[in-house]
Design goal:
Blueprint lengths: L1 H22 L5 H21 L1 H24 L2 H5 L22 E4 L6 E6 L2 E7 L9 E8 L2 E6 L12
Parallel strand pairs: 3-5
Antiparallel strand pairs: 1-2, 1-4, 2-3, 4-5
Helix pairs in contact: 1-2, 1-3, 2-3
Length: 165
């Protein structure tokens, strides 16, 4: 009966260990229970069967865990459960089409390098050229690169009355 309990604990440990490694990665209940099962199986073998059985159980536990990992990696199980779909969706940038270099607007959020600005009713994501800008700061588009709109603070001397709000 003692050997049966030890075998069940080792099998449970290996199954939970594989679940922890490949299905639910990270430190979770499966990993903790796998460790508890392995430790208890080895403790039970040392305490109830003897030192020789404990050493054999320790070696068998290590070999079975390593063998299970190798077997699981070589099997096609990971291929069957892995995600094979490519993401082909794109971000909708309809408002960005209306923005041109030189347009002026007002920031609607604080630009801690990235934020939002209003250009004639179109609120779009913009990037500052390096300066932190507060909300409601007049800005001008200086460059558009790969859908990213770069803005700079509009100097008070260059401000005109055509700032779109």
């Amino acid at each position: 009966m003692d050997i049966f309990i030890i075998i069940l604990l080792i099998i449970g440990s290996v199954i939970l260990f594989l679940v922890e490694l490949f299905i639910v990665p990270g430190i979770s209940i499966a990993g903790i229970l796998a460790g508890v099962c392995a430790i208890f199986a080895n403790y039970y073998a040392f305490a109830h069967v003897g030192i020789t059985a404990g050493i054999v159980t320790l070696l068998v536990t290590a070999v079975v865990c390593i063998g299970a990992i190798v077997w699981f990696m070589r099997s096609k199980t990971l291929d069957r459960i892995s995600l094979k779909q490519n993401i082909t969706s794109k971000v909708n940038r309809n408002a960005d089409v209306h923005i041109r270099q030189g347009d002026t607007g007002i920031t609607t959020t604080r630009l801690a390098l990235i934020g939002y600005a209003d250009f004639g009713g179109n609120i779009v994501e913009v990037k500052s050229t390096g300066e932190l800008l507060d909300e409601h700061t007049p800005v001008r588009v200086i460059r558009i690169v790969d859908g990213s709109i770069l803005v700079e603070k509009l100097n008070p001397a260059k401000q005109s009355d055509n700032i779109n709000q």
